[in-house]
Amino acid sequence: MATQTKTVLHGYFRSSCSWRVRIAFALKGIEYDQAPVNLIKDGGQQFTEQYKKINPMQQVPAVEIDGITLSQSLAAIQYIDETRPGPRLLPADPVKRAQVRMISDLIASGIQPLQNVYVLQKVGAEKIQWAQHFIERGFQALEPMLKQTAGKYCVGDEISMADICLVPQVYNAQRYKVDVDQYPTIKRLNQTLLEIDAFQVTHPSRQPDTPVDMRT
Amino acid sequence: MATQTKTVLHGYFRSSCSWRVRIAFALKGIEYDQAPVNLIKDGGQQFTEQYKKINPMQQVPAVEIDGITLSQSLAAIQYIDETRPGPRLLPADPVKRAQVRMISDLIASGIQPLQNVYVLQKVGAEKIQWAQHFIERGFQALEPMLKQTAGKYCVGDEISMADICLVPQVYNAQRYKVDVDQYPTIKRLNQTLLEIDAFQVTHPSRQPDTPVDMRT
């Protein structure tokens, strides 16, 4: 009954956290509607009263699913993993699950929040150097960690939530001119993952709200 | 076999993320050794080569358990929840689990990283106002969210990871002079939770590394 409601992703083509959810949906084969929220236009559509009711944090993504609204990407990803069939996004083994969550949280708590659009707006003129600093700081920790956990993917040989977090963060790193060549494991994993259909069709350059001049 | 290794928490009395793990250990009744890492002394003991091997991110906490090291608090908390007996830290119901994770991540990704000691050091002179801004922004979102999910505790009537995240974040808010009275649900939940033994014995004012003049 609850699963008959339509799944809606409120997101933005260029938001790395929105991209995470799009990848998870694609890997699981979940159909959903996209409700674009333009973070730049009109001073930011996330600040409207209407959107604030959907996500009081005034950020993307927010996922309407099964009659609830989930406004943190990793909570949404783990919810669909626990309630939907399809490939596991977290491994069955508790140690591997913990490693997947550790890598995901290093990115989701340790890097992404510090180069978020609303934080960089507050930083002001120094924002590019600020973003580079925190992404590089994070990648310097992530690289040795991934060297220990990675197989073909971030943790062993199965795609997981860690991979879902990694690729959008590398995209952001490149946007802020971080030299990803310095991190060979991150670089290799990113390249491998970008070959996969679920990462390609959900790419920021190919969304309904992607501006024409940014499409590929 | 693996569980015979000693569990060690590398933490700091005043770190809110370390406190989260201490609460989880206390709720589960897990015995552990504390290995204090003084974030201030000698320029920060987290920057030593020795500690960098334990946590390349050079932050606390890091948990050595079952032969692995977990360096993100929520990954560690969910690992012990999935591998140890005792009260559940995440509810069995998938919707409630998702709400617990959403609230936990709002704090762990949306608030805490922006008022972290190493971020505030980079902010410089404006650091108090910066911390206040991001804590208030987060609490303004958290308050209506908790109004919907809370019973006696953050999500319904069972203590969960969301409560484990809330109390240390309120402690930080008070440290940075945020007026918590503006958030009646947050205030009420914090007061209720601080009555509980697992929150009291793990309080920053009562740890082995708490300076004498900060003890209560």
TrEMBL record, chains A, B:
Main location as per UniProt: cytoplasm
MF-aspect GO terms: glutathione transferase activity; maleylacetoacetate isomerase activity
Catalytic activity entry: 4-maleylacetoacetate = 4-fumarylacetoacetate; RX + glutathione = an S-substituted glutathione + a halide anion + H(+)
Domain GST C-terminal: 93-212
InterPro entries: Glutathione-S-Trfase_C-like, Glutathione-S-Trfase_C_sf, Glutathione_S-Trfase, Glutathione_S-Trfase_N, GST_C, GST_Zeta, GST_Zeta_C, GST_Zeta_N
An individual GO BP term: L-tyrosine catabolic process
Pathway entry: Amino-acid degradation; L-phenylalanine degradation; acetoacetate and fumarate from L-phenylalanine: step 5/6
PROSITE patterns found in the cross-reference section: GST_CTER (PS50405), GST_NTER (PS50404)
Protein name: Maleylacetoacetate isomerase
Family named by the database record: Belongs to the GST superfamily. Zeta family.
Keyword Cytoplasm: yes
Alphabetically ordered keywords of this record: Cytoplasm, Isomerase, Phenylalanine catabolism, Transferase, Tyrosine catabolism
Compartments (UniProt record): Cytoplasm
Enzyme Commission number(s) of this protein: 2.5.1.18, 5.2.1.2
GO CC terms of this entry: mitochondrion
Protein's gene: GSTZ1
Gene3D superfamilies in the cross-refs: 1.20.1050.10, Glutaredoxin
Pfam family, one: GST_N
Cofactor (UniProt): glutathione
Domain GST N-terminal: 5-88
